[in-house]
């Protein structure tokens, strides 16, 4: 594992990033294109092949033994297709097949971006050495991934860990996903800002109405800004506690723009967790900030390719039953 | 696997049951004692050893190669201890050590009762052949267990799948567990009955105020009884959808007394599931009644002992990273 290089791709609505990643998680060669998100599918694919072509011009390309793709979801690892919400030209788009052709038959692993981030935190970040972990990104949306029994758990389609769309308020506000009271509907950056504005929070002279500005207000003691973070923290706590109660995790790692608010988020989150993580086997659960930076998607895509056989299914070696 | 016999124990607040279970899930020899739940721990232990002694008098005992214990929770499989809520004489009681001594060093596996029921449904019941499943008991309480990637997932302490105590209503009623708005607080039999009575449901001339009586009222068209089941169904749907969204399950199996209400529960549950299981990778999720009867605890304890190495940890064979 990790003695060869892995070709990593990070597919998002803003950029398509690629790298050759070594066995220590170092990005030896990089390439990047803006995502032509409003164009047709063939045009978006050309941006991917252009990234791969640039990487292939490196002398190190020949040492690559696998490809890992982390993509904005939904993905379907079982079929090798992706349908990123923010790239309308790709719906059930067979990205794995196209990439496999381009890389001469190397094994290709596809996972969702939350799973990729989790693989990175587990390999080299805040979940390192932990056998059971939830890793999350709280930003424009809320995503996540799971490590169970020491292994990444992408699930059959590569989407497991989608904590942003579990309901913690069954009578709550409708969520764009079609559900109600989802964690994301309460705790994402735009929802923190929306709730603060609705409740009378006044932005500063710069007119910044993002969650970062609300966080600054909360740090300065603004009660409405504090209340909006408190509400987000409760929703995150209920979702994290639900995850721990369902699958037994020992640590929750939180990254993303909203997490960079620091104590303004983590203090009420840790308090609220005591209200929801009540059973004996989840009471020791800790919540910590993520450690991997903006390269987590690429490092994690590489880790996922090393962790899993191609296709995204997790390895299992239980003898068959008689 | 399953070519030898397994000694199975099912520890509950009412009875302590034991059996020798063969590789086809047949209970070849049985023994049972009432649980002296109000007595001290040593007295409760004597009921267990008495069950084991009776099984040991069978000529088949010598073929036993392992012991599986399913117990009312909480359990701690990592330490081999149990603290069943309804058996106050046992707190952090080292049951595994006591049983191991009694059985001459055979490997002993301990799991929670929800995990045991899941192992039974996966082996021989409604989750057979499914690689990713949630199995639940909806009764006086709400319990459950998970099959992930084709294997039972008890978690490090044997408690995973505790769906009854995830919050689906973060501002909801306090639950005896210390949380709020837990699935069990809304969907258990006693809570279905409590809500119906509170809202004006009138029991029949027999004075039966159980959830079974409310179910009969619902079948006869009583709107308050129907509404109480509808509310329970929504809470179950939100919890099942959360589980599917977090770990990707393809089927939810529901047993227990409340599930025996049949369509009165399953019809609104399947409707509500469409409101909460919204993401592409969970839309195909099906919900079905359990198939294993009252022996599920014993069959499942045997299955868990065959599925897992002693100690309750799931097997993993990913090569270590360099």
Task: Characterize this entry briefly.
By secondary structure, chain A is α/β, with parallel strands linked by helices.
**Order of adjacent strands in the largest pleated sheet of chain A:** 3-2-1-4-7
CATH architecture of the largest domain in chain A: 2-Layer Sandwich
The assembly state of the depicted protein chains is homodimer
- Name the helix and strand elements of chain A from N-terminus to C-terminus, one letter apiece: EEEHEEEHEHEEEHHHHEHEH
Arithmetic mean pLDDT of chain A: 93
Distance between termini of chain A? 33 Å
Number of helices of chain A: 9
Which spans of chain A have pLDDT < 50 for at least 5 consecutive residues?
309-322
Number of domains of chain A: 2
Biggest interface, chains and residues, is:
A-B, 65 and 65 residues
Sheet with most strands of chain A: 5 strands, mixed
| Class per helix and strand makeup of chain A | alpha/beta
How many β-strand runs of chain A? 12
Q: Outline of chain A, from the CA principal axes?
A: globular
**Can you identify the CATH superfamily of the largest domain in chain A?**
ATPase, nucleotide binding domain
| Helix amount of chain A | 25-40%
Give the radius of gyration of chain A.
20 Å
**What is the CATH class of the largest domain in chain A?**
Alpha Beta
């Amino acid at each position: 594992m990790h003695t060869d290089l892995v070709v990593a791709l990070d597919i998002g609505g803003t950029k398509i990033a690629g790298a050759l990643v070594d066995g220590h998680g170092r990005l030896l060669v990089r390439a990047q294109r803006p995502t032509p998100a409003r164009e047709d599918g063939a045009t978006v694919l050309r941006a991917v092949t252009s990234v791969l072509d640039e990487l292939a011009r490196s002398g190190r390309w020949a040492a690559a033994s696998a490809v890992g793709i982390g993509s904005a979801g939904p993905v379907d690892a079982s079929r090798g297709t992706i349908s990123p919400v923010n790239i309308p030209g790709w719906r059930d788009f067979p990205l794995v097949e196209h990439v496999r052709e381009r890389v001469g038959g190397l094994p290709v692993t596809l996972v969702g971006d939350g799973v990729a981030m989790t693989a990175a935190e587990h390999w080299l970040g805040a979940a390192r050495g932990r056998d059971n972990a939830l890793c999350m990104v709280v930003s424009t949306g809320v995503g996540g991934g799971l490590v169970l029994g020491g292994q990444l758990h992408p699930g059959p389609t590569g989407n497991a860990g989608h904590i942003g769309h579990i309901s913690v308020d069954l009578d709550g506000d409708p969520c764009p996903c079609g559900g109600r009271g989802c964690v994301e509907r309460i705790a994402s950056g735009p929802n923190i800002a929306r709730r603060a504005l609705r409740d009378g929070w006044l932005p500063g002279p710069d007119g910044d109405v993002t969650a970062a500005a609300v966080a600054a207000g909360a740090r300065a003691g603004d009660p409405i800004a504090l209340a909006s973070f408190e509400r987000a923290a409760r929703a995150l706590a209920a979702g994290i506690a639900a995850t721990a109660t369902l699958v037994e995790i020992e640590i929750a790692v939180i990254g993303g723009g909203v997490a960079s608010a620091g104590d303004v988020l983590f203090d009420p989150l840790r308090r609220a967790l005591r209200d929801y993580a009540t059973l004996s086997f989840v009471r020791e659960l800790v919540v910590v900030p993520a450690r991997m930076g903006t390269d987590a998607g690429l490092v994690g895509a590489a880790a996922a390719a090393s962790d899993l056989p191609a296709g995204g299914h997790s390895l299992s070696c239980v003898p068959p039953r008689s």
